[in-house]
Amino acid sequence: MCRGTSEEEFAELQQAAISGEAGDDTPMARYVKDVTMPHRRWLELNEQRARVRRTWASFFEDHDFLLCPITPTAALPHDQTDPRTITVNGRSRPYWDQVVWAGLATLGHLPATVAPVGKTSEGLPVGVQIIGPYLEDRTTIDVARLITREIGGFEPPPGFD
Q: CA–CA separation, 45 vs 25, rounded Å?
């Protein structure tokens, strides 16, 4: 059962997972399927996560850190409508597409730090994600400090001074 969820609420989540449309990949559909998955399935997924962690450990034998995007787009205006969307290259995309790059670090239990590296033509901030080896949080923080020292630190966007 999910932490903080009553037996009745959990049963409702299970029913929602069972009765959902095949192929429904909305955040809510994924949520109800994920929180009600059988333990055997969780074990399979956890083994995949362990393989990912071993692959990262191998990568970091030869590299001190990895620089990559934090999101597929630069900062965007706040939007609380539901369902939230973003525009990428003129096409509407689900808002949650923004978290794909963060998943690189979180899946492997790796530290990640974001450093500001510039601004868009509209003055919105652009950052870079620094991913480091497991338990080496200080490495990613130090790399962010060095990048900030060379490029310049965070500056609030227009209207947020």
A: 18
